[in-house]
Amino acid sequence: MKRAKGILESKLDGPDWIDVARHLSNLAMVFAPESIQARTLYAKALLRHGDRTEAKEILEKVREPKPGSFSSSDDEDSWYGSCQVLGDIYMELDEFEKAVACFQDFKKSPKSGARTWLKLGIALEKLNDTKKAIACYEQATAYEGNPFAREAQEALYRLK
């Protein structure tokens, strides 16, 4: 899992490297079929390989139902990461209600930040929930050095 994660998080994006990551994460699932981290890594490898449909199915199974407790911090991080990735997939598919639910879950992760608030604002705006979208965009602009501040600020100007 460590090597697959390293490949997927690095700039090694050639098809051979993605195949290696997919193979390693698939092996991890064989040895630890209940591992959230293994399943999430496999789904991310599938996404990088271009198989969005199967990756979405795996991530949906990882996300629901949320475990009452996690077997490791890696599984917890992976569960939150699966919410973020699944939210992005739902955004691409114009399934904004599902995206909102995923980003709401990911907000509880210590790794969430301005990007999460921006994506949540965009999804809420698409659902015509202007008041909540504005609140999210305001949260996104509150982060110093935020690379998403401009996009959030433009959305605020548009909605106010």
Structure characterization notes:
With 160 residues, this protein is mainly α. Helices cover 74% and strands 0% of the residues. It contains nine helices and no strands. Helix 3 (36-49) runs antiparallel to helix 4 (52-63). The longest helix has 20 residues, at 73-92. It is elongated.
Defining traits:
160 residues; mainly alpha; 9 helices
Provide the fold topology.
Layout: H1 2-9, H2 15-31, H3 36-49, H4 52-63, H5 73-92, H6 96-106, H7 114-126, H8 130-141, H9 149-159
Helical coverage, percent range: over 70%
Query: End-to-end span in angstroms?
Result: 46 Å
Which residues form runs of ≥5 with pLDDT under 50? none
Largest sheet: none
Number of strands: 0
Would you list the SSEs in sequence order as H and E?
Answer: HHHHHHHHH
Q: Sum up the overall morphology in one term.
A: elongated
Q: Radius of gyration, Cα only, in angstroms?
A: 17 Å
Structural class: mainly alpha
Strand content bin: under 5%
Q: What is the overall pLDDT average?
A: 90
Number of helix segments?
9
